[in-house]
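Sample entry (251 residues):
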Amino acid sequence: MKPIALQTYTLRDAFEKDFLGTLRAVAEIGYKGIEVGGMYGQETAEYVKAVSDLGLVVTSNHGALPTPETLAEIVDLQQALGSTRLVSGYGPDDLKTVDGCKACAEKLQKAADLLKPHGISVHVHNHYWEFHRVEDGRYPFEILMEQASYIFSQLDLYWVAFGGADPVEVLARYGKRVELAHVKDGALGAEYHFAALGAGQVNLPAAISALDPAVTQWLIVEQDLSDGDMMQDVKTSYAYLTANGLGEGKR
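Predicted structure, serialized as tokens:
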């Protein structure tokens, strides 16, 4: 089983109100790590100390891709966080055509080239629009993976399924490039709707079992919105993974 982390964006409102208290609650639930989704008003050194003091690990950081002008700042932040993985992504308008997808892939490859000497890898986070076919019949996701040859995919299992693809089939083809998986659940109808893990329609046991155990390092829980108490959903999702033998936590 792979260790379980939480994308901090899930609890963004709580982190803004009480960073230390929220981080402590995440650690007490049993999560082993966090993916940084914002600094929530904290200085980097304070952020890192709080994470370390609670026995958590920074799995990755979600942020902007570097340019030559911003490279030093981004590398400094990654190194301060102790993170060798930078996660980024694209909006739907960027990926509507083959040419648009190729342009995005070129930017990803350039970013990877800039970061590689610093020991930092680029991971692209998908939404549903990466799995809406473009004019040549391919998924934008396929074009990104093929054109940017040594980036990684941070595969979001819910968005793959909501977009109309099968996470198991995607992992059969691209699993060697998935070090980080976003584990998410929700409805698969005409409208997206998020839920705690196990309360939606994604076949999470099948998808998690399809991850390559030699490659995937973390299961990262993310939930964009909640109908109720998000902290309770975060607890429910952790309990679902551990109780079903799908992920490893501290409890």
